[in-house]
Design a protein that fits this description.
The chain is α+β, with helices and mostly antiparallel strands and about 150 residues long. It contains four helices and six strands; from the N terminus they run E-H-E-E-E-E-E-H-H-H. The chain has one domain. The strands form two sheets. A four-stranded antiparallel sheet has the order 2-3-4-5. The structure holds zinc ion.
Length: about 150
């Protein structure tokens, strides 16, 4: 039984089911050299039924590992979904079991930043960049001096 499955029958009669999960991030289906999920996904919330809908409220958090846009060093930054509300028509839930892994996955992936920068947005590599280039330039010019 997947941790993501909600049994509709258990919610009948106005039951509110708490959701409190810590899950490995495999369900996100993403593990690339420049996009990794190094920690578990925490999801908390609740689910209940109205006359026609399953309602799901969730908060979720994990972290994502991506390269700094400036120095290319891999860094971990928090990834959060603050307030996800999902409504699913009960009539469309097959077998009276709703699996919310895809709902959670989409909500997290929407929050992915396009680019990240290390050191809280002030890449330490940025300061070092110009002295480094200068040194390289000087080195390149030494041999030509001798040619004259
Ligand atoms: Zn950086």
């Amino acid at each position: 039984m997947s941790a993501f499955k909600i049994l509709i029958d258990r919610l009948k009669g106005g039951q509110v089911q708490k959701i409190d999960l810590q899950i490995t991030p495999e369900f996100l289906g993403l593990d690339e050299p420049e996009l990794k999920f190094p920690s578990k996904v925490t999801a908390k919330g609740e689910t209940y039924l109205t006359d026609e809908y399953l309602i799901l409220h969730l908060k979720a958090s994990t972290s994502v590992r991506m390269p700094c846009a400036v120095c290319n060093e891999m860094i971990d930054i928090p990834l959060k979904v603050d307030n996800l509300t999902h409504t699913e028509p009960i009539s469309e839930i097959k077998g009276a079991i709703f699996d919310f892994s895809e709902t959670l996955r989409e909500a997290l992936l929407i929050e992915l930043p396009r680019t990240v920068e290390c050191n809280g947005g002030k890449c330490t590599g940025r300061e070092g960049l110009s002295p480094f280039l200068k040194t390289e330039k000087d080195r390149t010019h030494f041999p030509f001096k001798d040619l004259n």
